[in-house]
Amino acid sequence: MSDFDPVVHYDSRIEDVDFIDPERIREACRYRGYTYKEAAEKCEIEYREFGLMANGHKDVPTEYIFKLMKGLNFPKKFFYRIKWERV
Asked: How many other β-carbons are positioned within 10 Å of the β-carbon of residue 67?
């Protein structure tokens, strides 16, 4: 019998970091001094879609994460928020 207990050794942080926080997109825009239109152009994302994501009306598709990182010049982890930080 093994001493490994999956409940004790379960790393919940893996599931806690699961979404891009729209507030982080807005913070990145403010920090860089970009309007949504300018940020959308830098990220090569359609302006309407960018606005929907930044305002939390649409989830950020996986393929857009790299575009946000590159266009706004922030690391990937900046855009993620762990579940228990949600207000």
From this structure: 17
Whole-number Å distance between alpha carbons of 31 and 11: 33
pTM of the complete model: 0.72
Q: Which two tokens stand for residue 6?
A: 């999956």
C-alpha gyration radius of the chain: 16
CB 54 within 8 A of CB 36: yes
Between the CA of residue 10 and those of 6, 50, 51, what are the distances in Å? Answer: 6, 36, 37
The pLDDT tens digits for 45-74 are: 999 999 999 999 999 998 899 999 999 999
CA 58 to each of CA 39, 51, 52, 61, 74: distance values in angstroms, whole numbers, following the listed order: 17, 9, 5, 9, 20
The full set of domains in the chain, from first to last, is 19-85 (1.10.260.40)
